[in-house]
Design goal:
Elements (H helix, E strand, L loop, with lengths): L2 H28 L7 H29 L9 H22 L4 H10 L1 H18 L3 H7 L1 H7 L2 H16 L4 H18 L8 H27 L3 H9 L7 H37 L4
Helix pairs in contact: 1-2, 1-3, 2-3, 2-8, 2-9, 3-5, 4-5, 5-8, 6-7, 8-9, 9-10, 9-12, 10-11, 10-12
Protoporphyrin IX containing FE (HEM) binds next to helix 2, helix 3, helix 5 and helix 8.
Amino acid sequence: MTARQKIFWLRQATLFGLCLPVLYLAWRWVFDELGPRPVVDATHITGDWAVTFLLLSLALTPARSIFDWMMVIQIRRRIGVAAALYALLHFLIYVIDQKWNLIVVVTEIVKRFYLTIGFTALLALVALAITSTDGWQKRLRRNWKRLHWLIYPTAVLALLHFFIQSKVNVGEATMAAGLFTWLMIWRLMPERLRTRFLGLALLAVGATLATLVFEVAWYGLVNHVDPMRILAANIDPDLAPRPALKVLAASVAVIVLVAARHLLKVANRLWTKRYSQSTIPTS
Ligand code: HEM
């Protein structure tokens, strides 16, 4: 298969994968499988996917460097656009939940801080999706990079919205914030460390500790829970896996994949050498 064909199929597969959550949601909605409050469930599901795709789009640059996988950059734009579309759908479902009463929607967005930041994140995501095309890239030139840098504060707002609306259980939001921290530390790290085992190991430790700090700080500041109780929960096997452990597992998975890739490369080189030695006559 040529490189062009590979890119074509990668793009098609990505498009299919990006449509799956909304198709599955539509299926569950139509066949009444969403539980007693379908609109609330649909709001949660679309919000979760918007954050997932947002983080995934940010993960592709590190993936390209760490796994030396150039092609992956070809799907970054559509994953970012999918994040914006899922966020729009999430907003639309919220509007439906308010019986299309736009006055109530606007009042709520102005009145409730978590909706105000959600709305700000939504506007930014839509603006970034619209200007993600080649045409806009050419039109905006150097300013395009500056504009698209907005994705980082936008992700912070989306995560804060996630935390605040999660109320008593911030487990998923904490994990998302931990993964986002991994991505941010990677970008801030010296370039020579970004693809080395040492760098990835430091990253694993840093992101895991940051996740623990987010959990302790949120429960401490918002719910007034004693930090020692949160720390104890993190070593209690009955309460596992906590968000910090999940972030550690994801970070270790990256290291294992890099190691496997290195081993495969070495094995491949050895095999090629032996094969050429056994098939090419020496004299
Ligand atoms: C105008 C914009 C937005 C509105 C009106 C809105 C509204 C809501 C509402 C009503 C909830 C559920 C709250 C509850 O259960 O009581 C929610 C949850 C959530 N929203 Fe938004 N949101 C907006 C923008 C966003 C954006 C831009 C993102 C992400 C990119 C996002 C991600 C989430 C997530 C992850 C959840 C939690 C889902 C879960 O608990 O599983 N929202 N939002």
